Amino acid sequence: MPDLHKDAPASPTGPGRAETGPPPEAIRAVPVRHYGRWAGAVVVLVLLGLLVWAFVNADIHWDVVGDQLTYHTIVEGAGKTLWISVLSMLLGVVLGLVLAVMRLSRNPVLTSVSWAYIWFFRGTPVLVQLFLWYYLSFVFDTVNLGFYKDEMNDVMTPFLAALLGLGLNEAAYMAEIARAGILSVDPGQTEAAHALGMSGAKTMRRIVLPQAMRVIIPPTGNEFVNMLKTSSLAYAIQFEELFRAGETISSRNLAVMEMLMVVSVWYLALTTLFSIAQFYLERRFARGSHRQLPPTPLQRLRSHLGSFRTPSRVGKVTI
Amino acid sequence: MSAEPMVRAERVHKSFGAVEVLRGIDLEVRSGEVACVIGPSGSGKSTFLRCINHLEKISAGRLYVDGELVGYRQRGNRLYEMREREVAAQRRDIGMVFQRFNLFPHMTAAENVMEAPVQVKGLRKAAARERAAELLARVGLQGRMDAYPAQLSGGQQQRVAIARALAMDPKLMLFDEPTSALDPELVGEVLDVMRRLAEEGMTMIVVTHEMGFAREVGDSLVFMDEGVVVESGRPRDVLTDPRHDRTRTFLSKVL
After folding, report:
1. Cα separations (Å) of A290 from A183, A255, B33, B106?
2. A26-66: per-residue pLDDT in tens?
3. Smallest Cβ distance to A198: which of B108, B119, B192?
4. Interface ipTM > 0.95
5. Is this structure's pTM higher than 0.80?
6. What EC number is given for this enzyme (chain B) (predicted)?
7. B7-252 — its CATH code?
8. What would be the CATH architecture of the domain defined by A61-289?
């Protein structure tokens, strides 16, 4: 195959005219003093100190907090919170994507159904929706799917009611997030894919969605953090998640505030863990959008350690 | 040479709502010909180009590529719209290069070139990568296989885009102002690649403002204004001795 590209002759690049003589003296000026900053820091620190002082002297049994933190009921509750959040989120993301594509389709029936779904599930409180699922047996006493038939009371466990309540509600929000993501992709991308002979479905899957992900993931992470906390509402329909576990124990040991603190520590741990995971996920989908990806905290740490000895490299930048 | 031209447009009309952008285009491009289309902005030249691979549907007239009606099937006197799959199949043989490159930013240069052969033709990845290496070398980018578009200059991106279109072995290449988004010093490298392609006998339709390229490489020059072909002919003739006032006025502004 012949070479289509002829190398242009290298342009003559001579060294620029260099400065002669000694370099000018470096500037050493007296910096501006920021007294306001000092005052602000002092005020905030004093207030913070008072707050800590108040808690230290409050009637809190910190030993109970420590003991209960790893109590098996609490750990199991945290596990269930994580489990129901992940499952509901999965349901929400998948159904949300479907709803977003329906909403953007040219079929008026699909568009309106998607619109109505979002209208209903975004317009009513999650708590109400949870109870609607939980009490479904009041209006339908049997489930009959043709191939499967059973008593509604046996089918609609707290777990299933929580999953449906949280997941279907989430789908409405995810649909809007996914729609915004899909619309954010340059129409030129679709045109280029079509011009290459790719079908609509393939263009969506291979070209549009991967690029939409960059816009979709940050708010989705936010939704998941919300989901971890919103799942506590499922305590009202007898689902044994983290908050309910704390409530059950405090009704026995009467350490109400202590148990709430235990529960809070667990929620904070879960949301923190997830935020770290989100960082790496976003980094992965940022491929191609930056000339160079930002280093991960680990890489940054390694480069700092390395800089004490020899110059180390992160990506293509020598640090 | 076959008697059937590669592209044949017969009284092609195209309206966007009430605005008629193309008002009866008649044009033939023979196989192996390089046709350059010039004209003021808004004259419909880009729209016409996009009609050729059915990115836009024409509203009236007939448009044939290699003897086949674009986007429709004719049975008797009736026209049937093609299914998405059939339209996609037609587009496979027509390469297109865009003003704004439209490379896939989440894929490397090699992946951009491999995408269609793998996804559309079902070529094996290893084979597609080998071919991508060949094509990228052909456009002078042998060392940049694994660079993402954001890491390439405009001229390099456009050359990847040309390689991407060539990967489908098209019988016709459409260029929609391929150098208009480039810094002046990068225009030459893209035009060089296009010139080589023309020398190899590729059939090309090039919407461009590069009069030098049109004069040296083009076999024919088409001047469009307000949705019609005002005049066409050998580039040298049109550029040096235009027959119409409108052509003369346009050329006096750009030359």
Report:
1. 21, 52, 40, 10
2. 888 888 888 999 999 999 999 999 999 998 888 888 889 99
3. B119
4. no
5. no
6. 7.4.2.1
7. 3.40.50.300
8. Orthogonal Bundle (1.10)
